[in-house]
Amino acid sequence: MAKTDAPRLDHFFSAVAARLDLWRDLARAAQAWAARPASRGDAALHAAASAALTALLPLEDFQAYPGARVMNAIQQRVTGGDAMGTARLVQRVSSALMSRSYRSDAGEFEPEDDVAGPERAMPAAKTEGAARPYFEVLFVVPTPPARWAAHAQQIRKLRRPEDEFVYEPVFVGSFEDAALAVILNTNLESVVIYDGFPYESARDLPLLKALLSSRLSGALKDRAAGADGVVLAKLIKGFRPDLDIILLADKKPDAIISDPAAEGIRRVFYEAEEPLEIHFSILSGVAERNDTPFFNNLKKYAAKPVGTFHALPVARGKSIFKSNWIRDMGEFYGANLFLAESSATSGGLDSLLEPTGNIKKAQDAAARAFGGDRVFFVTNGTSTSNKMVHQALLEPGDIVIADRNCHKSHHYGMVLAGAQPYYVEAFPMVAYSMYGAVPLRNVKKALLDLKAAGRLDKVKTVTLTNCTFDGHVYDVRRVMEECLAIKPDLIFLWDEAWFGFARWSPLYRPRTAMGARAALKEAFADPAYLERYLAQEKALGADLDPKDARVLDTRLIPDPRKAKLRVYQTNSTHKSMSCLRQGSMVVVADEEYHRHEQAFKEAVFTHASTSPNQQIIASLDVARRQMELEGYELVMQAIQLAIEIRVAVNTHPLVSKYFRVLDVENMVPAEFRPSGLKSYTEGGATWVDAALAFREDEFILDPTRLTLMCGTAGFDGTQFKGLLAADYEIQLNKTSRNSILLQTNINNTRSDVANLLKVLVEISKGIEDRLKSGGEAAQKAFAARVKSLVEDVPDLPNFSHFHDHFRDDPQGTTLEGDMRTAFYMAYDHDGCEHIKLMSPEIDKRILTGPPLVSAHFVIPYPPGFPIMVPGQVIKADTIEFMRKLDVKEIHGYDATLGLKLISPGVLDGTSTQPKQKKAKPAAAVVGV
Ligand SMILES: Cc1ncc(COP(=O)(O)O)c(C=O)c1O
Question: What predicted TM-score, i.e. pTM, was given to this entire model?
Fold first, then answer.
């Protein structure tokens, strides 16, 4: 980033990312200055170094490292014309920031170039041997800045060799600066607030002011203006719920503790400072998050001399390490993997099926971290988590409003539970052969239609995918509010398989299941919300009339006295956090959970393996620890890298001729974007514009999910995925007809971005060369290929309807169907028929009947959603789509046999085969 582009402090996200760049800029400028012999002096280079330093200074006020002393030393060297000295010190700081060595080497905090041993004034950040984890603590104080250095020294004196961690203090003196520090300093783990600080910052921060005013409503705004520590604590918790907050109040602690806004403050001290107590509170708060009860015990277990007489030969590894033939397995994985394996549930290992010990503790810690009331660890992926939730919540005959494009585990879950899906359609994105997310209007309409048909009482759950594979994120709060207004006891299952990490970004969190649940819990307790509801009730009535068009058009809110918050989230922890494959969680926040407690036990017994992998459980525990301690920084980094990829690809002169990362306006139709945001990177958009879209738009695009158009380079998605994997060692997991999906996560680095761009440049050059050397013929062929991929795209078929045989009320207007009965009809081979996809018989049947009724789920990859479900009547558009599909992998379809259909005779009762009876309701069907 050029010096003139120095970010404004309140361009929060770019400011965090820019810090290291600005240090690099300064290091470069200082080196260039130092490279000139002093005698010649170079005013321009000196000025450049000075400008680079000026750009950086405001950001450094919020960081403990390198700290005021080092920054002052650099400033003095720059002002005093000491080019060599500046270059040396800047280089040292810049390297320490890159390598993070300052976290373990206290000498880095010294302004001298070469300080050793006792001269290091700062207490060593190391115990004997291993470095202690390092973090920073924000102190919000009313004292003048001149006193901060002395205060910092007092704090450092509290350190004891036996402390588990070491921290450095950072000081700010106002409400606004505290808010800014919490956003900008990713090393913070705790905040100590001394009441009595002013509200306003001395800095010019218009965007921060706008952000704060949107976050602080009504009474809180007035209180914040009075620099109330409780309100600051609440604001900070809103940004980063993991941070511990310690308040030193100038009023009595009991008054504070009964203040609802004070929820979440870890400790309140009254007036008189108790420095050592504060120190202990800081350390114990971090220790709590750092604790991994299951993993810790597993490590202890691995070190015990255990004799095993159970059925798991790899446990302890003796069959491997003593083997003549498979020792390489042991060498490859290392001894600990085997030492830490056991089929026992004792010795601190606990039982996943009925946890009461360390797994329970680890699950409780996960519930705290993910914002739920309880958590279930699952070791067979979210595919299993979803089936567990469906089984536990649904009885045969219950209706589920479900996105037809949801993951297959939901469809199968409904088959198992005997629930009837009422499929709602996502908006299609025909140009890219993919679907978006389900407009709220469609969900409301389904509920209202069911209400009009007198079947609303049958509706138990709504299940939606947040975010979708391609990155569409719902306005979760609004969906729940409007649905609860129609049915106040609805249960929501948010499939956040891809989105578990989102909790650790203040931008995303309100759009997660648990973030929205927290916001609604607070809203329902607010008397102003009830007033708003009563106004709505006056206009629309207490019992909403499904035939009244205003109900569909109004942004509804529920009666907070009646609405129940019943929210479930499933997440593939392994997809977005540091967890081993298949690690998944079910997060529960259901005020009526007691109704399902036993059913959840049954669901665990049904689906969980009786031999769960200890390492997956441990990694769930550790993944949670990491996110609670550094999730904020890591997620911020993943977002920033995604933004860098977007800019790099879309502005590269050669690459952008053939490739493009689709932007907000391509992925989210304008009708769902009242904020008007079109792009995260173009048109001068700031993060405040993005924050507005995140607040207001019906759907937003998760910036970390990058749909890269490759059809414009003449590749279909599958072909391009293969090319990247085979020739460039780049892996990805989703493709469409003309695009691939890339994503950044907490694992990516800037080198990955650079490598991706390099590869795209190489491929683009290859295309250019081929087009040049192949002449007109090659160019024509290329244009035709691009046209076929980009323009000749098949229409996406909607769900048609279930055959009347599977509808409780064939005369009725509602769409739900008994999919389980249809599913089991496929088991009766004599009651089914096969017809080849290309045969004229299919077209004839579509025109003149009898209807074609699918016996199976048919799921092509890509796009990965079921274009047929059991019992569905197949229409011409689905056949046309399937005929045009050029993918090889179609689950549920055998090309040599053709489509498997339920025979018409079975459905209308004319078959010589006995007519299938509807499957008997059962509490749970296992083993499909
Ligand atoms: C939306 C969604 N839900 C659930 C799953 C299943 O998750 P897992 O792979 O952890 O079983 C996936 C997998 O891709 C998914 O995309």
Answer: 0.93
